[in-house]
Amino acid sequence: MSDHDYRPKSKVGQWFNDRLPLLTLANHLTDYPTPKNLNYWWTFGGILTFCLITQIITGLTLAMHYIAHADMAFESVEHIMRDVNYGWLIRYIHANGASMFFLAVYIHIFRSLFYGSYKSPREIIWIIGIIIYLLMMAAAFMGYVLPWGQMSFWGATVITNLFSAIPLVGEGIVTWLWGGYSVDNPTLTRFFTLHYLIPFLILGLVILHIWALHVPGNNNPVGIDIKKPSKDTVPFHPYIVIKDGFALLMFMIVFAFFVFYAPNILGHADNYIEANPMVTPAHIVPEWYLLPFYAILRSVPDKLLGVVAMLSAILILAVLPWLDTSKIRSAVFRPLYKQFYWILVADVLILGYMGAMPAEGLYLLIARVATAYYFLHFLVILPVLGFKEKTLPIPLSITEPVLGGSPNLAAARSKESKIE
Amino acid sequence: MKNLYKLFSIITIIIVSNSYSFAAEKVEYLKTDWSFKGLFGKFDRASLQRGYQVYTEVCASCHSMKYLSYRNLAEKGGPEFSEVQAKAIAASFDVTDGPNSDGEMFTRPGKLSDKFVMPYENVKAAQAANGGAYPPDMSVLVKARGGGVDYIYSLLQGYEEAPSNVSLDDGVYYNKYMYGNKIRMAAPLSEGLVEYGDGTSATVEQMSKDITTFLMWSAEPHLEARHQMGFKAIVYLIILTTLVYFSMKKIWSRVKSEV
């Protein structure tokens, strides 16, 4: 890498950099050669970093006013909404920020699935990403408990009760998690502690995620290995910075719409009723971003197997680099995979929808078929496809099509891999 | 692209078929034009003041509003009573304070900083006085119900004679908008129940609208500030996005010429 040769111009800079090479790092980050054909689906990494930092800053502010106590939590949230200066703004950014975070992470994950970004040599980036995703779900779930509304309380009861499915020790584990014999004050205080801790774990993992990314460099819409730096790349600054910035601003417009004009539309009305252990809501539903997994959980008749299915649905992603046997990364050159990819997207959306519906009749049947297909996609279709699929010829470099390479490249280029 | 269309048609089919299957059991809420909806939505000040009157003369005998203080009545974006009016309103309530230097609790007239006085000491007392049903706190009620303001507005006007196939216990009433149609609250409003100071005729419809507007404000006291800031924020973002877009095009034009 060329940035090893970097030397600061000033004497002071050199003195400092010899002792702590922060300037070398800064130089590496600005010069970092990035494929120039990255499309807008690649901007979500930057957007996610923004989401994390927004959540941390608003979360810290909320924590200064929030009281983690079963008798006072709900009231303290109302205090934030009413009496804290711009408390309503901070809380609505934080609550909707969670949804925006998940929206962005799903786009980011499905971008990776489409362009095969999880494949060699990027498996570690991918696995760190899955761990981040798991931690995000834990953080979001615990965060949803903190306002101590009805959905907070009963959501916490349902999810923690899943651990009781573990044979022999299940009940004991649940009591241990609760810190008592039901979800109560000890549960709330530990959830608050963990909700405060997890974002910083995520931040650490994000740094590793980016570090691991900077070793092989970005994948790209064509999915080929490129020489770096070369005619195929541009320096990160200013090219990618401004493009990420533009996409981030577009994202912020959507974000602002939710915060200012529909701040409660993604939440559940029951969470404005203070938690009451004596009254169970008619339908207990998680936040929208957990619905596909909730549908998988409920579509298995056995409790233990349901929990296993739900966890496997996420963990199966961690071994995806080895389940997908195809050598070709980008779906642009995989005509069959592309079809299956879109079916999977539809499948997950259907699962999400079924997760919001009562688990009965036709809904349950559709959820079961969709669950079966979800696993079929990863366990059967992907491994087999790698051997059976006839892929399109791939170009040798990103610039090749522009310079008039082989004719089939024009077809590939016209669809997914826009060249800037 | 073709796949994308397929995907969207699948989703559309699911959603449409679902809304059909539920159409039979779902009741259409009554609609009215809420001044606080929309990009620049603001509260109707007079309606908020009338709504407060309905609350305090009718609802407050059973329903608490424990997150509101009397000072809120004079704050910007709310009913905006003058400070003198708000002080007079607060002073008309007896507030228990203490203990004093003798260790005794005592009663004094309310102050602006006091929370709304609750009709009952606690939930149990409220239940005991209402045949076991707890009249919910109304501070955030419109946000705590699925249909929001439309639901509350409809519910207040939804009392009817029960159909012959529905049998009602003592102290249970029939309401066509209530979940399950059975409600423990008797119809709270009737024509001319309150006498509005501004001469507005107190029909059930008018009172329902006023109290619902008041409840929307009590649940979202900063709604006006939110709408105003939202508009500014979004306009700012759109202008900035446009500028950044052109900067981006300029910067990236260098790459095209190079290739």
Protein architecture, described:
The complex is a heterodimer of chains A (420) and B (259). Chain A has 420 residues and is mainly alpha-helical. In chain A, 63% of the residues lie in helices and 1% in strands. Chain A contains 16 helices and 2 strands. Chain A has helices spanning 11-19, 22-31, 44-65, 73-82, 87-115, 123-145, 150-161, 170-178, 185-214, 236-261, 291-299, 303-315, 320-323, 335-356, 361-388, 408-415, and strands at 33-35, 233-235. In chain A, strands 1-2 form a two-stranded antiparallel sheet. The longest helix of chain A has 30 residues, at 185-214. Chain A is globular. Chain B has 259 residues and is mostly helical. Chain B is built from 7 helices and 4 strands. Chain B has helices at 2-23, 45-57, 83-91, 123-129, 148-156, 204-219, 223-258, and strands spanning 94-97, 106-109, 173-174, 182-183. In chain B, the strands form 2 sheets. Chain B has a two-stranded antiparallel sheet. In chain B, strands 3-4 form a two-stranded antiparallel sheet. In chain B, strand 3 and strand 4 form a beta hairpin. In chain B, helix 2 (45-57) crosses helix 6 and helix 5 (148-156) packs antiparallel against helix 6. The longest helix of chain B is centred in the last third of the chain and has 36 residues, at 223-258. Chain B is globular and about 80 Å long. The model of chain B is unreliable at 19-24 (pLDDT under 50). The chains are: A mainly alpha (420), B mainly alpha (259). Chains A and B meet through helix 4, helix 5, helix 10 and helix 14 of A and helix 1 and helix 7 of B.
